[in-house]
Specification:
The relative contact order is 0.10. The chain has 497 residues and is of the alpha/beta class. It is built from 17 helices and 18 strands.
């Protein structure tokens, strides 16, 4: 294949494409909401990536109007905003094939053909298309797979000349508006209608109709969709598409909803009020996931807790407010382990800290199992080794050398996994192993510190929410049992008795 070049899509461009397309799914626009998904970060609109790749191909074509005869796209892997996306091209007969790669991993396969009829290139909508949207003018539907079985509706074809020229300068100049608007409308269907809020685009196929096809006026300004099949076993939905310009299908998946951890009131019923009353505990990354569970368990057991967050301020304060309904509200502080600085309030807490629970982590992504990704490894090490080392240095500045401090830094049995599930995670596994080696060395050289670094089973968090066999009750039981075993008062009483 021949390299066409590369492009990236910024957060600002995603915002503009949302107005252009009507797809305001928070996965593309809201970093805090996106971090609660299994992807952990905002992603580009897949269709926008497709059109940018097509636009790149058209930049190398002769400057003449053309029209698509057919388009087929497979979305094999999502891409995050700001990431460099490389495009390669190949031609076999009339079929042009583009492949889009992110960090060396293929994320889209695009195949298309052009119409041989010059009349198709001039085809335009019979009526003006709808203008660009504003976010408060549309609703992102929270559809379920059971609720979409007989769903059929339409979305309006949208167009804005200024946005089109800015986002897709070559495609908007050379391809018919009707075809581009139809392709773009497919992302509004997936992201806003079906599956809607919790969606992942999987595949798009369109056959474009000749320019002289008869149609009713409503079909000229809308794209009709109807659910053809919904498979609850794999959370997949297939839809048919039709309007005056094209017929086709799309496939999408219902992605897992954000992980919901057990409520504090339920946790408090499982733990003695003084189980952890001897602790002044600092929970790094306590706004969600295992950090949220640990914060609640400790508070239920009488510990004095401070929880920190890096980006999820609302999540962290919601955890504190939930605890405050039954126990004293734990203080909340922002702390980014990557910058090595802690706030004045955290400094004061560190003067009397007895336990540190370290749950800081970046988004864990699968790499190429055949190629070592140094950037990915470095990202993990920044959190698991360098960030931790900076934190421990800061804590040491404010705590007494005579004060015993216990560090809890869990890993996963995934580190021991030799199955195919572990393929592509070499960088993560190596970084976590390096963190374990570092804390053991730190423990050996600091007599007042002791380290607990268990390898826990895979538990229910945002990043594992797509695994249906894991739920919040399993997570809660594992965490309670682990904390009781290592730090619980009742466990110590048993051992001493």
């Amino acid at each position: 294949m021949t390299s066409l070049g590369s492009f990236s899509i910024s957060a600002q461009e995603s915002q503009a494409f949302a107005r252009f397309s009507g797809d305001f799914n928070p996965l593309h626009l809201d970093p805090v909401a996106a971090r609660r998904t299994q992807f952990g970060q905002t992603l580009i609109h897949g269709v926008f990536g497709t059109l940018r790749a097509l636009d790149l191909w058209l930049a190398h074509a002769d400057d003449s109007h053309c029209a698509l005869a057919r388009l087929k796209v497979k979305y094999s892997r999502p891409a995050s905003q700001g990431l460099k996306l490389s495009v390669s091209a190949d031609t076999s007969g009339d079929v042009i094939r583009l492949e889009v790669f992110a960090s060396g991993v293929r994320c889209q396969i695009i195949e298309f053909e052009f119409s041989q009829d010059p009349a198709d290139a001039a085809a335009q909508p019979v009526e003006p298309l709808g203008s660009a949207c504003t976010e408060n003018s549309v609703t992102c539907h929270d559809t379920t797979i059971a609720g979409c079985m007989a769903l059929a509706d339409t979305v309006e074809l949208l167009w804005d000349n200024e946005l089109a020229a800015s986002l897709l300068p070559n495609a908007s100049k050379l391809l018919p508006q009707s075809q581009l608007a139809t392709i773009i409308a497919s992302t509004q269907i997936v992201g806003m209608k079906c599956p809607g809020l919790h969606s992942v685009f999987a595949q798009l196929q369109l056959e474009f109709l000749p320019a002289n096809t008869d149609s009713v006026s409503r079909q000229n300004t809308h794209l009709n969709y109807e659910v053809l099949k919904a498979d609850a076993r794999i959370d997949q939905v297939q839809l048919t598409l039709s309007n005056a310009y094209a017929r086709g299908t799309l496939e999408a998946f219902f992605r897992a909803r954000p992980a919901q951890q057990a409520r504090f009131e339920a946790i408090a019923e499982l733990i003695s009020r003084d189980e952890f009353s001897n602790q002044n505990a600092l929970v790094i990354g306590g706004s969600r996931g295992l950090g949220e569970v640990i914060t609640k368990v400790l508070a239920a057991g009488g510990a004095t807790v401070m929880l920190t967050y890096a980006a999820g301020k609302d999540d962290a304060f919601n955890v504190s407010a939930e605890i405050a309904e039954h126990r004293p509200a734990p203080p909340v502080c922002q702390l980014n382990v990557l910058d090595g600085a802690i706030s004045h309030h955290t400094e004061e807490f560190c003067a009397a800290v007895s336990h540190i629970y370290y749950l800081a982590s970046p988004v864990i992504t699968k790499g190429d199992s055949n190629r070592w990704d140094q950037n990915l490894f470095s990202k993990y090490c920044d959190f698991y080794v360098t960030g931790l080392a900076h934190l421990l240095h800061q804590v040491g500045r404010f705590s007494s050398l005579d004060t015993p401090i216990q560090l809890f830094i869990p890993s996963s049995i995934f580190l021991d996994d030799s199955t195919t599930e572990a393929k592509g995670f070499d960088e993560y596994i190596a970084a976590k192993a390096a963190a374990e080696a570092y804390v053991r060395r730190f423990e050996n050289t600091h007599s007042n510190w002791s380290v607990v670094a268990p390898r826990l089973p895979r538990l229910h968090t945002d990043q594992t929410s797509g695994i249906k066999s894991i739920d919040e009750q399993d997570t809660l039981k594992v965490i309670i049992d682990q904390l009781k075993k290592e730090f619980g008062q009742t466990e110590k009483t048993k051992l001493n008795g």
